[in-house]
Design brief:
Blueprint (H helix, E strand, L loop, with lengths): L2 E4 L5 H13 L14 E8 L2 H11 L11 H5 L1 H8 L12 E9 L9 E14 L2 E11 L5 E12 L23 E7 L3 H9 L9 H5 L10 H15 L9 E7 L7 E7 L5 E5 L7 E9 L1
Helix pairs in contact: 1-4, 2-5
Length: about 300
């Protein structure tokens, strides 16, 4: 069964108010039954050019005639929050951990549009040693209902008993670094989590300060995974002859360990730009993020 929500242009303010209300006053009806999934919503999302440019600046993306490669995920934040605030979801939606991200660019993303037709779907996945995995799928369609951009986030609800013997082994092992990989420095300045939250709308407490991160078991604030991923793709964009046109390509990325701010780290990119890794810091080669691009 699909619980569908639609209609009004998506609002971050309304979505966060609902999410906080559910966190403070858990649903009296208990957990959602298995046949309540998938949850689905869609709505037009207004696009502000100033916010797009602020996103380019905070992620240090090159100027381009193309829409930023991951911006549909940012634009869909009100829809994601609307689904994550559904009464009866297991665990706490605040503090959810982003394990992985896939993206498909079906067509070139041209100049910034005034409004995007976006949809989001949430469904449960397998159990995990630290909780349960959920899949959040996002789709941007044109006026004819044809997909322009698709993304799927793997989200971990920590401390949840999935009630299943099936356990996901996520993230997968990191591949070996290709020969001749380029190395680029990346800085994660103080206040990065709050700066990115103001642009992206992702105010997950684990990213905002040491005090709020400790409430969820982290000693330091974690850099947003989607900032790190966008930062890496920005450097790859500078290396590619096609620049920011990723049409016909698929991204698979995994967030394998926390990357903390403030700090600095290193990005490794294969000579063809199809593989990349961001280290936890400059002293250790243990990855915080790795990913690969391929045709589909």
């Amino acid at each position: 069964m699909i619980r569908e929500q639609r209609g009004q242009p998506a609002s971050l303010t309304r979505a966060y108010a609902r999410l906080l209300g559910n966190e403070l006053m858990p649903a009296r009806g208990g957990a959602l039954e298995a046949d309540a999934y998938p949850l689905h919503c869609h709505a037009p999302v207004e696009i502000q050019r100033e916010r797009v440019e602020a996103y380019r600046r905070i992620c240090q993306l090159p100027s381009s005639g193309h829409f930023p490669a991951l911006y549909p995920q940012i634009a869909a934040m009100p829809l994601h929050l609307q689904l994550l605030s559904t009464p009866g979801l297991p665990g706490r939606s605040l503090g959810v951990v982003h394990l992985g991200q896939t993206v498909r660019w079906h067509r070139p993303m041209g100049p910034v549009e005034e409004r995007m037709n976006l949809s989001a779907t949430l469904r449960p996945g397998p159990g995990h040693v630290r909780g349960q995995v959920f899949y959040m799928q996002t789709e941007w369609q044109d006026s004819d209902g044809i997909a322009i951009w698709e993304g799927e986030s793997l989200l971990l609800f920590r401390g949840v008993d999935a009630g299943s013997d099936e356990m996901a082994r996520l993230p997968p092992d990191t591949p070996e670094t290709p020969e001749g990989a380029l190395e680029l420095d990346i800085d994660c300045p103080a206040g990065l989590g709050r700066s990115y939250a103001r642009v992206s709308g992702d105010w997950n407490p684990i990213h905002l300060s040491s005090m709020s991160a400790r409430l969820f078991g982290f000693q330091c604030p974690i850099v947003h995974g989607m900032w790190t991923l966008a930062r890496a793709l920005g450097e790859i964009e500078r290396l590619r002859p096609q620049g920011g046109d990723f049409s016909g390509r698929q991204l698979e990325a995994w967030f394998t360990a926390p990357l903390f701010w403030p700090g600095s780290t290193c990005l490794h990119v294969s000579p063809d730009g199809d593989w990349f890794q961001v280290d936890r810091d400059r002293k250790r080669r243990r990855p915080a993020l790795w990913g690969q691009l391929q045709s589909f």
